[in-house]
Amino acid sequence: MSAATGAMPWWYWNRFVLQRLREGVERELLGLDLPEETPLLEFGCGNKPYADMATRYGYCYEGADFKDNKHADIVIDEAGRVDCKDGTYPVVLSIQVLEHVPDPGAYLREVRRLLSDGGRLVLSTHGMWEYHPCPTDYWRWTLDGLEKLLIDNGFKVESKQGIVGLMAASVQLFQDSVRRRLPRGFRQVFVFLCQGIMSLLDRMQGTNSKNRNSMIYLLVASVER
Ligand SMILES: C[S@@+](CC[C@H](N)C(=O)[O-])C[C@H]1O[C@@H](n2cnc3c(N)ncnc32)[C@H](O)[C@@H]1O
After folding, report:
1. Which residues sit with their C-beta closer than 6 Å to ligand 1?
2. Model pTM above 0.90
3. Strand partners, 124
4. How do residues 186-220 score in pLDDT, each as one tens digit?
């Protein structure tokens, strides 16, 4: 899943999830409470949907991605590494990348190498979502599984949360399984209704329940050497 930049139209097919994710990332970036001009690397930046937000909050933003991504400031090589010194960044942002990475452990160890002592990784990836290759789509997680993966690769988990619980998730998956079969004229209205129902249902779902089953998990993890 890739975050759209700018205002999303009312019929946008994953509007609710993207809004919730964006609010979560915003909360975490603000919560780090770091000095102005703190370097931040988005590792797997796509079209940089979080660049404006990070810059607005005083971070010095750079995006890394593969060489065919014209938005990338820093190129990730085929082995998943970047040509940057150890400990360059106090903050690394990884939003909706991990499910596309063939070896998540190797990816996290490269992030760990790039982080300075005490540096923080803000990470999100999918619990439940339809197949969406970019360029491939390998994994889905539980919060327990993600936490274990982070600990096994040298991180300490500082905070964790599920974004969009099971009730709303079931509507998103229902919407995505049928929307392309609908007549074009009805599709936008159908998506609009589904996204509205998701918003209502998600308000009824508690935090504990979202941590057990969620469309997206968002974690902050630190490194200490
Ligand atoms: C779904 S997009 C998300 C982009 C952006 N972070 C966002 O939230 O919109 C996934 C991104 O991960 C990148 N990616 C895929 N495999 C990767 C890997 N092994 N290492 C780093 N980035 C990777 C892709 O090139 C793509 O830009």
Report:
1. 1-3, 43-46, 49, 65-66, 69, 76, 80, 95-97, 100-101, 107, 134
2. yes
3. 95, 218
4. 999 999 999 999 999 999 999 999 999 999 999 99
